[in-house]
DNA sequence: AGGAAATCTTGACACTCGTCCAAATTCGTT
DNA sequence: AACGAATTTGGACGAGTGTCAAGATTTCCT
């Protein structure tokens, strides 16, 4: 019984701050180890001992920094969002033409498909879990919402640069991009070498589709 | 050591047939119990004892009809396909106008969203599992492919009736419809009462989008 | 009816799991 | 250096897991 009440009477706020920092720092460290382990093994088969082993600490320490397993997983989900969402923001601002934006956005999606594949599969795993465990839904919905806003910014900007309004709302646009990314991820993890290029082409084409600026085929 | 080698010498094929039938019948029965249990609890938390309890048999019988847990799960996945894919086939053939097809197809999707929500969440759960367990990928990919063909038939027929060719290929079309269905499922299971109607409108609009026949908004 | 094969039950096994806790260790202050 | 608090360890617990096999029960043919 040492933490979580910030414990004893401290005169100077500096000491308390330092301690909180250190506590939070280790939490983050353990959270990252958990994130890595979860993205390796998946939610169904990741135990606290697996996570501890990946962190270099013993398994008992996890209950010192997290109340229980659910607390740890929730922390990981929130941390995933921090890692993931920020990635596309500069893409929107730097592009000056519709095709340029499309190319840059597609390149960014392909990059994260290749580099962060295991992290993304964890996301889809946890989102599926939220279909069964109600306690996950709030966090999952929040991440979904922020991803939807990200897509909305991209589509809106693309439509602006192309001069034609979008033909569908943000929820549908997000669902569509999420759908092709998910398919691309499955193929990427299956070792399909054409998955990145297909995703790139798909993203570019889908931006054209949602703004009605694509030719028939 | 009784089955799987079809065992001893039988003179009449009729007897063997009957036995195989009975064996397969019970396999199906247990598979359905497993399907129900999995769709209730999710892959991560379903044990063989849970499944047995839902089937009315003891837990030992599962290893009489299935080699191991993976064998059972695989059987369930294949059975899901049989249950699920056949549902839309008559929709395509009966419709005679584009808007009629759209309405009927959307209605069918809404119906299965409402009635088979727990079954669909199992599908997304198992597809996520296939991102981690390579042994699932073949079956998952096969189901994905047959769903893609189903979507392709609908979109192709719709484009035919509307007189305008589709603006994207089957993989992208499937990814898009899968995306909005997944979002709708999440909202449906969260208790959002507008999820069915939103899905209906989304499907209709998406058919218009992929054929380039929708007005700007 | 009798007996063999098929089917089902039951209990056990070797693990792994999340959780907890007392002891050991490290850290920061005086 | 020394003391108290914070941190870390490692073992223990009870519950739950998949798997297996021996025995009980049912089914079916002669």
Automatic annotation (TrEMBL), chains A, B:
InterPro entries: Homeodomain-like_sf (IPR009057), HTH-type_TetR-like_transc_reg (IPR050109), HTH_TetR (IPR001647), Tet_transcr_reg_TetR-rel_C_sf (IPR036271). Residues 47-66 bind DNA. One of its GO terms (molecular function) is transcription cis-regulatory region binding. Keywords: DNA-binding, Transcription, Transcription regulation. Residues 24-84 form the HTH tetR-type domain. Transmembrane segments: none annotated. It comes from the Bacteria. SUPFAM superfamilies: Homeodomain-like, Tetracyclin repressor-like, C-terminal domain. It holds the Pfam family TetR_N. PANTHER family: HTH-TYPE TRANSCRIPTIONAL REGULATOR BETI (PTHR30055:SF234), HTH-TYPE TRANSCRIPTIONAL REGULATOR RUTR (PTHR30055). This is TetR family transcriptional regulator. It comes from Pseudonocardia sulfidoxydans NBRC 16205.
């Amino acid at each position: 019984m040492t933490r979580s009440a910030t414990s004893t009477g401290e005169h100077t706020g500096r000491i308390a701050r330092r301690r909180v920092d250190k506590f939070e720092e280790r939490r983050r460290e353990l959270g990252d180890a958990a994130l890595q382990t979860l993205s390796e093994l998946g939610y169904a088969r990741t135990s606290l001992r697996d996570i501890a082993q990946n962190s270099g600490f013993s398994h008992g320490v996890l209950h010192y920094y997290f109340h229980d397993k659910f607390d740890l997983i929730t922390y990981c989900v929130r941390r995933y969002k921090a890692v993931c969402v920020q990635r596309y923001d500069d893409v929107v601002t730097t592009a000056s033409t519709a095709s340029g934006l499309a190319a840059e956005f597609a390149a960014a999606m392909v990059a994260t498909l290749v580099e962060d594949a295991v992290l993304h599969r964890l996301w889809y795993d946890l989102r599926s879990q939220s279909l069964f465990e109600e306690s996950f839904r709030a966090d999952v919905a929040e991440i979904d919402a922020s991803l939807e806003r990200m897509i909305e910014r991209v589509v809106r900007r693309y439509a602006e640069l192309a001069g034609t309004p979008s033909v569908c709302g943000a929820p549908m646009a997000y669902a569509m991009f999420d759908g092709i990314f998910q398919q691309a991820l499955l193929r990427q993890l299956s070792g399909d070498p054409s998955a990145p290029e297909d995703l790139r082409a798909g993203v570019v084409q889908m931006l054209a589709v949602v703004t009605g600026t694509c030719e028939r085929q």
